[in-house]
Design goal:
The chain starts with a strand and ends with a helix. The protein folds into two domains: about 120 residues, Gyrase A, domain 2 (2-Layer Sandwich), CATH 3.30.1360; about 110 residues, Beta Complex (RNA Polymerase Alpha Subunit, Chain A, domain 2), CATH 2.170.120.12. The chain is an alpha+beta fold and about 270 residues long. It is built from five helices and twelve strands. Helix 1 packs across helix 5. The protein is flat. It has a four-stranded antiparallel sheet with strand order 1-2-12-9. It has a four-stranded antiparallel sheet with strand order 3-8-4-6, with helices on one face. Strands 5-7 form a two-stranded antiparallel sheet.
């Protein structure tokens, strides 16, 4: 199994997973989306709210704001020695005190720990008119997207099979498939159809090129063939800002390794 990065940045990455199968590819996608820990606001204590939003709506919006996450300094509340009461090991407190007229935004949340704060500062929460205000205290905890989508550290996380584009010897380079390709990855080169250099991964597997070739009257089979490599997968993943994209991938792989080790241990015990 091998991972080749096409691009990697703080908030997004794309890579090719080779030597695998669709079961593992889907398990990796699900682990990055649902099993990687991140911070989100869980409990909100509202002291004053004269805005147009009900307390419940305000709390819901706060919970959906991505928070930067420090996985080294905190543990999940259900594993903490405080018994779920909330302490400095499992909980981060954020406060807000804002008076209108103005738009309340995510950076108005003041965290007790700079390592855990809104990942994006300009997320609008509620508009306050004159003499309206919001005063509250919120508690953020670690959890998984499997429990609630507000703990998902990704906004985009998906994959597709690696496309295989193969013109055959009957291709006469007419160019009809070139004009039909919505991704603009085909070209006429040396009297034959070819894929533009480095553009094969952009193929959407729509097969419109095959259909256009058939429409030209070439016969019962097109002169260009689109297939899928069953052992290679193109991943695209985008972080919501709570964790770097590379860390999400790392934690997703570690989760799968941990689950595999536990399964092997359980099977060893059964076998005696």
């Amino acid at each position: 199994m091998k991972i080749d990065f096409s691009s990697i940045g703080a908030d997004s990455t794309s890579f090719v997973l080779s030597g695998s199968d669709i079961a593992f590819a889907n398990a990796l996608r699900r682990s990055m989306q649902s099993e990687v820990m991140s911070f989100a606001i869980e409990d909100v204590r509202i002291y004053d709210n004269t805005s147009a939003l009900f307390d419940e709506m305000l709390a819901h919006r706060l919970g959906l704001i991505p928070l930067t996450t420090d996985l080294q300094s905190y543990i999940p509340r259900d594993q903490c020695s405080c018994g779920g009461k909330g302490c400095a090991q499992c909980t981060v407190t954020l406060t807000m005190s804002v008076e209108g007229p103005r738009m309340v935004i995510s950076e108005d949340l003041i965290s007790q720990d700079p390592a855990v704060q809104p990942a994006v500062g300009q997320v609008p929460i509620v508009k306050l008119e004159k003499n309206q205000k919001v005063v509250l205290e919120a508690q953020a905890i670690l959890n998984r997207g499997l429990v609630h989508s507000k703990w998902q550290p990704v906004t985009i996380c998906g994959y597709k099979n690696y496309p295989l584009i193969t013109p055959d010897t009957r291709c006469d380079g007419c160019g009809l498939c070139v004009d039909k390709c919505p991704m603009n990855i085909l070209e006429v080169k040396g009297g034959k159809i070819a894929v533009k250099e480095g553009q094969d991964t952009q193929c959407s597997l729509c097969r419109l090129c095959e259909q256009e070739c058939l429409n030209s009257g070439i016969g019962d089979e097109p002169a260009i063939h689109i297939d899928r490599d069953q052992g290679r997968f193109i991943f695209s993943m985008e972080s919501d800002g709570s964790l770097p994209a590379s860390e999400i991938l790392k934690q997703g792989l570690l989760y799968l390794k941990t689950q595999s080790d536990e399964l092997l241990e359980a099977l060893s015990e059964i076998r005696g």
